[in-house]
C-alpha cells in the first residue's frame, strides 16, 4: 500500500519532531529533566476529584454523567467560567463560552475555522509549539508578530499576498508564555489590538497560564481591553482560550473558548462534527472541583511553583557561564535561555544527556522559521529545589564543555 499517495497534502506539514522522539527516552531514573512543561502530579487535587466523580456516578447523577450531552458544554461549568471571565474584566454570558477538550482543541478549531491553505497566521518568534502543530494541518504561512508595533499593516498584508493568501489572525500566548515565560505588557496588548483593527483580522489570545502569576500586577486580557474599547463582547475580534490543565488536571481535557456569540456558534458546529461534545463526566467533575476549591488550590500552586522558579533563577545565576542569558518570568512554568550565538541547543541536548544526564527542550522547534538554534526552554514545574540546583550545575558544566 502506498500510503504517501493516499495521505492528504496537509499531512506533509505534520512531522514527528526529532526532539520529541529524543525526549521520550527521558524516563531513566538518573536523568534530571527540565523538559516536560507539565503540572506536578503531586499537586493534583485528587481527593476533591474522587468525591466529585463519586457524586457524578451516584444514582441521581449517573444517567446524565454517562450520557451524551450538548456540544456547547455542560451548562453549570459554562456559568462558572462566565463568573471567572467577569473577574478578568470580561462581562459575557453562556452563549459566549464553548467548552473544548483542552485549549489545544480550541487552537485546532480556530485554525480550521479561519485558515485556508496559503493564508497567514501571525505568531511570536518563538511561540507555543503546539499552536504551530495545530495550525499546520490547515497549511498556513507564518509571519512574525511584532508586539512592539514596529511593522505596518501594509507590510504584513503584502507579505501575506506574496504567499497567496491574506492574514487571518494574530496568535499570542499572553501571560508567562510557553516557551519564554514572558508576559505581554499593556502597550503590547494594545498594539496587537490596533493592528487587528487596522487589518480586520482575528486575535487568538492563549491564556493557558493566566492563574499562575507569582508576582507583579495582573494585566487585563486582550479580550477585556477590546471590550473596554468597543462596549460589548459581540463587537470583539479577540477569541480567548482558557484551560483547566495547569490549574486542576490536564488529563480530564477540559478547556474553553470565550468570544463573540456569532463565532462561538460556528465553533459549536465544528465541535458537533468533530467529537459531538467534551466528556460529560469530566466537565461535571471539573465544575464541582472548580466551585469547591479553585481559588485556594491555585493559591497553593502559586506558592509552590514560585519557590521553584526562585530556586531555578538562583541556580542559573550561580552556575551559568558568561554569555548565557535567561528570562525572569512573573509566573507560569518556563524559563527561556539564550546561549552564545555559535551554540546549538539540539547538539547541547545530546551532549547533556550523554555526559551530564540532564534534559531540556532545545528552542528551535518553537520558531515557525526554525531559527533560534542557540535557545532552550527549561521548565521548573516538576523538580524540587535540590534537583533544580543539581540540574543547573550539570547544565552549566554541559554548556562549558560544549562552548
Ligand atoms: N497553550 C499553551 C501556551 C500551552 O502551553 C498548552 C499546554 N502545554 C496549551 C495551550 C494546551 O493545553 P490544554 O489543551 O491542556 O488546555
UniProtKB/TrEMBL annotation:
- Asked if the record carries the keyword Transferase, the reply is yes
**Gene3D superfamilies cross-referenced by the UniProt entry:** Aspartate Aminotransferase, domain 1, Type I PLP-dependent aspartate aminotransferase-like (Major domain)
> Which cofactors, by name?
pyridoxal 5'-phosphate
- Record-annotated membrane-spanning stretches: none
Keywords from UniProt, A to Z, are: Aminotransferase, Pyridoxal phosphate, Transferase
- InterPro entries, per the entry: Aminotransferase_I/II_large, Class-I_PLP-dep_aminotransf, PyrdxlP-dep_Trfase, PyrdxlP-dep_Trfase_major, PyrdxlP-dep_Trfase_small
The Aminotransferase class I/classII large domain covers 90-395
Q: Does the keyword RNA-binding apply?
A: no
One GO biological process term: alpha-amino acid metabolic process
What protein name does the entry list? Aminotransferase class I/II-fold pyridoxal phosphate-dependent enzyme
What is the species listed in this Swiss-Prot or TrEMBL entry? Answer: Sulfitobacter sediminilitoris
Amino acid at each position: 500500500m502506498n500510503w504517501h499517495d493516499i495521505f492528504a497534502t496537509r499531512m506533509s506539514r505534520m512531522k514527528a519532531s526529532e526532539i520529541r522522539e529524543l525526549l521520550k527516552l527521558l524516563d531513566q531514573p538518573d536523568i534530571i529533566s527540565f523538559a516536560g512543561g507539565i503540572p506536578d502530579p503531586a499537586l493534583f487535587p485528587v481527593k476533591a476529584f474522587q468525591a466529585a466523580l463519586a457524586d457524578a456516578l451516584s444514582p441521581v447523577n449517573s444517567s446524565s454523567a454517562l450520557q451524551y450531552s450538548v456540544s456547547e458544554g455542560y451548562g453549570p461549568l459554562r456559568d462558572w467560567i462566565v463568573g471567572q471571565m467577569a473577574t478578568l474584566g470580561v462581562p459575557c454570558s453562556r452563549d459566549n463560552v464553548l467548552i473544548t477538550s483542552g485549549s489545544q482543541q480550541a487552537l485546532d478549531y480556530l485554525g480550521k475555522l479561519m485558515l485556508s491553505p496559503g493564508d497567514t497566521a501571525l505568531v511570536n518568534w518563538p511561540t507555543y509549539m503546539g499552536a504551530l502543530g495545530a495550525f499546520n494541518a490547515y497549511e498556513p504561512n507564518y509571519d512574525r508578530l511584532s508586539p512592539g508595533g514596529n511593522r505596518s499593516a501594509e507590510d504584513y498584508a503584502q507579505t501575506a499576498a506574496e504567499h497567496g493568501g491574506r492574514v487571518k489572525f494574530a496568535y499570542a500566548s499572553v501571560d508567562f508564555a510557553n516557551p519564554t515565560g514572558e508576559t505581554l505588557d499593556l502597550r503590547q496588548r494594545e498594539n496587537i489590538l490596533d493592528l487587528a483593527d487596522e487589518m480586520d483580522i482575528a486575535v487568538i489570545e492563549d491564556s493557558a497560564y493566566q492563574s499562575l502569576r507569582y508576582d507583579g500586577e495582573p494585566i487585563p486580557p486582550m479580550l477585556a481591553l477590546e471590550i473596554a474599547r468597543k462596549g460589548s463582547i459581540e463587537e470583539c475580534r479577540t477569541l480567548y482560550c482558557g484551560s483547566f490543565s495547569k490549574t486542576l488536571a490536564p488529563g480530564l481535557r477540559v478547556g474553553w473558548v470565550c468570544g463573540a456569540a456569532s463565532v462561538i456558534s460556528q465553533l459549536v458546529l465544528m465541535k458537533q462534527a468533530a467529537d459531538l461534545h467534551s466528556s460529560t463526566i469530566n466537565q461535571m467533575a471539573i465544575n464541582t472541583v472548580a466551585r469547591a476549591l479553585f481559588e485556594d488550590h491555585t493559591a497553593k500552586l502559586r506558592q509552590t511553583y514560585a519557590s521553584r522558579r526562585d530556586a531555578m533563577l538562583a541556580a542559573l545565576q550561580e552556575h551559568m557561564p558568561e554569555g548565557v542569558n535567561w528570562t525572569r518570568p512573573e509566573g507560569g512554568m518556563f524559563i527561556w535561555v539564550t546561549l552564545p550565538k555559535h551554540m546549538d541547543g539540539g547538539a547541547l541536548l545530546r551532549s547533556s544527556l550523554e555526559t551530564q544526564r540532564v534534559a531540556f527542550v532545545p528552542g528551535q522547534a518553537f520558531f515557525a522559521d526554525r531559527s533560534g538554534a542557540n535557545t532552550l526552554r527549561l521548565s521548573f514545574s516538576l523538580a524540587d529545589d535540590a534537583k533544580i540546583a543539581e540540574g543547573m550545575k550539570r547544565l552549566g558544566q554541559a554548556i562549558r564543555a560544549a562552548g
